[in-house]
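Bumping with the actual sequence this time:
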Amino acid sequence: MNTVARPLERALALARKELYAYINSPVFYGIAIFFLLFVSIWLFYFQRFFALDSATLRPFFAAFPLVFIIVIPVITMKSWAEERKLGSVELLLTMPFSEWDLVMGKFFSSFIILAIIIVLTIPMPLSLLPLGDFEAGVIIGEYAGVLLLGASATSLGVFLSSLAKNQAGAFLGSAVVLLIVMLINQLTQTSNLPLWLAEGINFLSLSFHFETFSKGIIDTRDLAFFILTTVLFLFLNTRVLLFRKWS
């Protein structure tokens, strides 16, 4: 058990330092306000929640994949790009930390920031509960899906940050890639594609795997997809660090 606890403790120790720095930055408050305004405007203006006359929060959770396209690149863009710009990546690699320790530390700090922002949205559905017969289990399932989607997208953003030379490049690269993987499944709904191609496109889409969670259903296949993609992007991140270490 200690062999598992030590790497986790090292990763959390690395994450704690970056987390404190981020929370004390005005960027955190700016992106949190943007997030809350976006989901509120989406629900009440674009989705016209009160005109739906239905006790469901699916229109609310439909906003999360869209807002993640902007928010997650902002959160993850400085993870490695800033270290590379300052030349401190080499210093980190000489410290008594494994590549997994460093990658998990970056991932935890970014994901915790995202989780805090997601938690800030909870008062909104709570304020709507008295207006209808909402199912608590469905809302919990929807939030579980949001966190899993956020974990997968965050690991992708941190990985892309390790490939970028600066924060601007990391932001643009992550925003473009997330735009594609979030919305690519729209092609299957608007185009008459062969079944095998449509299924392949849907499989690559993060928002497609989020759809079952947005209905309050926890599908083990989509759960496995989010977990495996998160681990995959973290693993690729360690390979980038190893390449830099020995190049």
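The tokens above came from a reply further down the thread. The radius of gyration is 19 Å.
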